[in-house]
């Protein structure tokens, strides 16, 4: 594996797998361009070295081959503006004569965007022949798509084997994702607190099990906390509960005790009469919620309880909100946790926030530049913290 920052791309055509799977509205305007801006440092470094860039990505989940709806051409105007007005060429196919010709004619300093990789079913199947055709377009392969690193697709993993070791590498985004993930998972300064929230225990079991091997403290918030409260014999009213995970929850609590990891459940909750932004609210101990009520946020004692643990930690991982933060009445807990993480970071802790909704929360509450690292990976980050080897990382580093 070669290091991107130590490579001079002068005269080279860099084939870069980016994650431009951005949300579009019905007029094809991009509603959140985070994934595009995240790839800019890599693109700009290749260009300023005197190389050219061939960008490949998927967009959405096209089912039956090419379609206007999922065409990457919709991204061209915004990509041009992100590249300070630089013209971006477009190939109406990602393989075949058009793509080959466009790649061949690309001059140093130029950028070419290929059409949606998923217009070919071979992409998601990890087809070798398809990967080989893609590989012919560039001199070096750069993977900068952390968001798809957990997929063994043609363009994210299989393609790497068609490049010698010194011609395949992570881009700057991928490099910082991997470095920050490894810093937390493998080199965490203790105490290390993992804050896991969100809706379901079933989505987070593997990550919790792996974190039992690594963390000093695990804070459990959000809807999933109530399955744990009930497993311990608490009354949770109409709160979210996965009845078939009660045993799993108990086993996790037992394992944590054996390993000396402290698991913290919210001592109290903000409860609501119904799942509604304007619902009537009250507060209750999390293990004594009245029958017709449901816990939709952690309460004020829990905020203090969790903030104390966060403040004394040196490493912090946060995945998943503490409550239904989409509704104003139930966003206090998530906001307070974000605030405590920002304070701990300012006092020298290393904090990594990742995985969908917690990223949305730090952005919404204005804390994204007050934590050490905000990951762009949803599923990929979860699998990384589950301890799995990610095909997109393995293909380059092994
Ligand atoms: P996840 O994708 O598993 O991280 O879950 C995020 C979702 O969990 C968000 O949409 C939250 O609204 C939801 N959530 C968080 N806390 C609760 C709760 N106490 N009850 C119901 N849903 C919740």
Summarize the entry for a quick read:
This protein has 14 helices and 17 strands.
- CATH architecture term of the largest domain: 3-Layer(aba) Sandwich
The set of bound ligands, ions and cofactors reads: adenosine monophosphate
Strand content is 15-25%
Number of strands: 17
The largest sheet, given as strand count, sense and whether it forms a barrel, is: 6 strands, parallel
Low-pLDDT residue intervals, each spanning 5 or more residues:
none
Radius of gyration: 23 Å
CATH topology of the largest domain: Rossmann fold
Q: What is the number of independent domains?
A: 2
* Quaternary: single chain
- Specify the helix fraction band: 25-40%
Supply the helix-strand structural class: alpha/beta
Write structural notes for this entry.
The chain has helices at residues 34-49, 76-82, 96-104, 121-125, 128-135, 172-186, 201-211, 225-231, 246-259, 300-311, 332-346, 357-364, 379-385, 391-397; strands spanning 13-17, 52-56, 88-91, 111-114, 140-143, 168-170, 192-196, 217-220, 235-236, 262-264, 268-272, 281-285, 288-289, 294-298, 315-319, 350-353, 373-374. The strands form four sheets. Strands 3-4-2-1-5-6 form a six-stranded parallel sheet, sandwiched between helices. A six-stranded parallel sheet has the order 10-8-7-15-16-17, with helices on both faces. The protein has two domains: 3-174, Rossmann fold (3-Layer(aba) Sandwich), CATH 3.40.50; 188-385, Rossmann fold (3-Layer(aba) Sandwich), CATH 3.40.50.1260. It is elongated. It is an alpha/beta fold and 398 residues long. Strand 7 (192-196), helix 7 and strand 8 (217-220) form a beta-alpha-beta unit. Helix 8 (225-231) crosses helix 9 and helix 10 (300-311) runs parallel beside helix 11. Adenosine monophosphate binds at residues 198-200, 203, 222-223, 240, 295-296, 320-321, 323-324, 326, 356-357. Adenosine monophosphate (AMP) binds at residues 198-200, 203, 222-223, 240, 295-296, 320-321, 323-324, 326, 356-357.
């Amino acid at each position: 594996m070669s290091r991107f920052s130590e490579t001079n791309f002068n005269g080279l055509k860099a084939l870069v797998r980016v994650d431009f799977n951005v949300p579009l509205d019905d007029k094809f305007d991009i509603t959140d361009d985070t994934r595009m801006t995240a790839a800019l440092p890599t693109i700009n470094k290749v260009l300023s070295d005197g190389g050219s860039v061939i960008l490949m990505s998927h967009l959405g989940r096209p089912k039956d081959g090419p379609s206007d709806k999922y065409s990457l051409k919709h991204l061209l105007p915004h990509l041009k503006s992100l590249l300070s007005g630089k013209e971006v060429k477009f190939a109406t196919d990602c393989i075949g004569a058009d793509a080959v010709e466009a790649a061949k004619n690309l001059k140093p300093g130029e950028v070419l965007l290929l059409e949606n990789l998923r217009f070919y079913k071979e992409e998601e199947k990890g087809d070798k022949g398809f990967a080989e055709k893609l590989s012919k377009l560039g001199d070096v392969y750069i993977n900068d798509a952390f968001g798809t690193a957990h997929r063994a697709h043609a363009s994210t993993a299989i393609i790497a084997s068609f490049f010698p070791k010194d011609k395949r590498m992570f881009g700057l985004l991928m490099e910082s994702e991997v470095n920050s993930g490894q810093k937390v998972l493998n080199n965490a300064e203790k105490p290390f607190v993992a804050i896991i929230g969100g809706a379901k225990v079933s989505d987070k079991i593997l990550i919790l099990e792996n974190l039992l091997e690594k963390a000093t403290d695990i804070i459990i918030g959000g809807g999933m906390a109530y399955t744990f409260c009930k497993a311990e014999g608490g009354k949770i009213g109409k709160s979210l509960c996965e009845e078939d995970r009660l045993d799993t929850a108990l086993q996790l609590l037992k394992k944590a005790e054996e390993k000396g990891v402290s698991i913290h459940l919210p001592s109290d909750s903000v409860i609501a009469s119904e799942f509604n932004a304007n619902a009537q609210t009250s507060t209750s101990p999390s293990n004594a919620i009245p029958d017709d009520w449901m816990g939709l946020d952690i309460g004020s004692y829990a905020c203090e309880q969790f903030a104390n643990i966060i403040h004394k930690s040196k490493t912090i991982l946060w995945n998943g909100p503490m409550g239904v933060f989409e509704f104003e009445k139930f966003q206090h807990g998530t906001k307070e946790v974000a605030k405590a993480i920002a304070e701990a970071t300012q006092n020298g802790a290393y904090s990594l926030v990742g995985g969908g909704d917690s990223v949305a929360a730090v952005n919404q509450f204005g804390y994204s530049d007050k934590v050490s690292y905000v990951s762009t990976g949803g599923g990929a980050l979860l699998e990384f913290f589950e301890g799995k080897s990610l095909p997109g990382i393995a293909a380059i580093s092994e």
